[in-house]
Each structure stands twice: as C-alpha cells, then as structure tokens.
C-alpha cells in the first residue's frame, strides 16, 4: 500500500493506494495519528486507489472519524473506489462514513498572530470582565501542631501546592506531595510507597477537599482564553515565554490554567513528605527527598497546569529561567496524548474527560535545569490554551513580601 500526503494549512489530504487489509490498516492508523499530532483540523482521505478494505480498515476509519469530531475537526472520505463503496454498502456504513459532505462545518481557530520573536503564534478569545483577584498563601505549620487546614476545592477555586487527601488519622503526614486543582478536579501525587497519582472530582453536593501543607489558592474567574502554537522550526514554546505572553495580555500578574500538548517537561516531585523534618536542600538528602527529571520528559503528552506568574518575585515565586524577566510557580498533571479541540475549549469539561478516560501519569513542580553546560532547559509546549485570571499586583502587598535574596534567587535543578 502507498500513502501520499499534501498539506494546505490545517487541511491535510491523504491519498491511499493498494489493499487496506489488517496489516496496512496499522500503517494507515499510524499515518492518521501523525497527521492529527501535527495539528490538522481537516483531513481528506482519498480512497480512489484502494482495491479492497477489510474490517480492520473499516475500524480505523470509524476510530478517526470519531476522534476528529471530538476535536471539532472533520475526516472526509472522498472518491471511494467502486469496490470500497460496495463494502461500505454491505457493512451498512455508507451513510456514516460518507456523510461528511463538503458543506460540513469545521470549527477552526481564529487567525493566529505571530509573536515578535518568531517562537510561535497566538489568538485570543475574550471570556468576560471581572475585577483582579487575590491569591491566598498558605504557609507550612510551625511544627508545634499536627493540625493541617482542610481546604475545599470547588470548581471555581484554583490552586496548587503540597497537600494530601485524608487526615492525620489516615496518615496524611506521610503522604504530603504535589497537588493542583481546577474545574472541580483535584489531582495529588502522594509520597507513600506507591507514589501513584490520585484524584477527587466534584459531583453534585460532593466537593473535593485536601489537607494542606502549603500552597497558593485563588477563586479564579477566567477572563481570556489564549490559544497558542509553537513555530514549526522549534520543538516547542518555553514556559517562560508563555508566562510572559500571559502577563502581557493580563497587563500584570496572573493566575494561569494551561491545557496543552507538551514537547518536553522539566521538573521534580516529592519522594518524601516534608513532615516532620521540613525540606532538605543539601546533597545527598536533596536527592532522597525529591525525584528530578534527568532529561526532558513526557513529550507529546497532554498537560493540565496551574500556575501563578508575575513580573516580580513574591512568596513561592521564582525566576522561570536564568534570563527570564518573569517569575512564577507551576504544578502540572501529565496525561497520555489526546488531540486538543480547535476553537474555544471548555476547560472544566476537557479536564473531566481526561480524568474519566485517561490515567494520570505524574504530577510535577516545573523548574528549569541548569546542569547542561551549553544551555539551561525548561518545559516546552507545542500547542494549547491558556486561561487567564488577572491578579492584584503581588508585589504591592507588604504582608506578602519576602527578602530580596529569596525573591531573586534562581530556582533550578
């Protein structure tokens, strides 16, 4: 079998020639997967040169027809050969497979505006206007008590930090690890012997709650959806560049919910709870308490990320890259790859579908890695959406300020 491809923007045309049996169905599936991963929102599959199609081939067509519709895209089967059309008729699938007529609408992103540095392009969807919000900081207990705040995390609440599901009686002190929460879904990576991500979902009267060691919490009402896509010449857009883009369009400090396809993630996660001894910053204790990515990890995954980013340092915020003029703190939940819908995304529905249909692979605190003598590395993203909630200037509140040495320090691996 032979497959040739031509491209016009986000419209890809695949021409197939030969027998589409079980063996070649896998090859077609791989080609369609690659096409979807490149960001195609419209695929025309020309079957004029196909002399035979088996049930395995039909299964591939049905699978990708469903997948393209799920992302507001279209898979069109055009010019099926007479033999292929006969098999469609005999299987009762003609109407389903050939109903994507030329007049079927395709939901596309608005025209993208290039970034001045050439790293990618973006477009904006206004979602509404609200006053600038406030971040609540939760510091670790002073060690004189075993009581930890129990924080409810409904859909409108956004946050991340170190926490665990349960209470003291259930052993929460030995499970404190990274967590994030958005859209009524809270995801946590406990530091028990299993080290397996867990989650809780808001459902009716049930609201997720977490025992909190430390963190940043805000009642976020997003005012903007910012869609972005990295330049074809780059692996992905660095997180520091995306943070700067968010700050520019929020015109100040901002809480960010990011849903994106990753090019690479750099970060760490707790291996040991900070209770009772706090954090260890010296070697080898550092390596025992934290698990670090040893190289750029989780390429081509889907990431749900919660962050607060600022033009200046503030509690829990550190420089996002050595040469970046932006500070932040971000936690990311990693899922297997699935294509992102074009056009506007309902973040709550998308995250819920991810949790319902996929497994959480990890939760990371994103950082940059300066161990490479040639260049430091940071997390990068291929394409996605950032939801922005403007915040009051974090540096204006004297009660939240830290020493200059703390705010200007470079958080690195």
- What's the Cα radius of gyration? 24 Å
Largest sheet: 12 strands, antiparallel
Secondary structure: helix percent: 10-25%
Low-confidence runs of at least 5 consecutive residues: 398-413
Between the first and last Cα atoms, what is the distance in angstroms? Answer: 48 Å
* Quaternary: single chain
Could you give a quick summary of the protein structure above?
This protein is α+β, with helices and mostly antiparallel strands.
Structure description:
With 413 residues, this protein is an alpha+beta fold. It has two domains: 2-98, STAS domain (Transcription Regulator spoIIAA), CATH 3.30.750.24; 113-408, no CATH class. Helices cover 19% and strands 35% of the residues. It contains eight helices and 23 strands. The protein has helices spanning 22-37, 55-70, 82-91, 94-98, 239-250, 285-289, 347-357, 404-408, and strands at residues 2-8, 11-20, 42-53, 74-78, 113-114, 120-126, 136-138, 149-152, 157-164, 177-182, 185-188, 198-201, 209-219, 224-230, 237-238, 254-264, 267-270, 290-292, 302-310, 318-319, 327-335, 362-366, 380-390. Strands 5, 6, 14, 15, 16, 17, 18, 19, 20, 21, 22 and 23 form a twelve-stranded antiparallel sheet that branches. Strands 7, 8, 9, 10, 11, 12 and 13 form a seven-stranded antiparallel sheet that branches. Strand 3, helix 2 and strand 4 (74-78) form a beta-alpha-beta unit. Helix 1 packs parallel to helix 2. The radius of gyration is 24 Å and the shape is elongated. The chain starts with a strand and ends in a 5-residue tail after the last helix. Mean pLDDT is 86; it is low at 398-413.
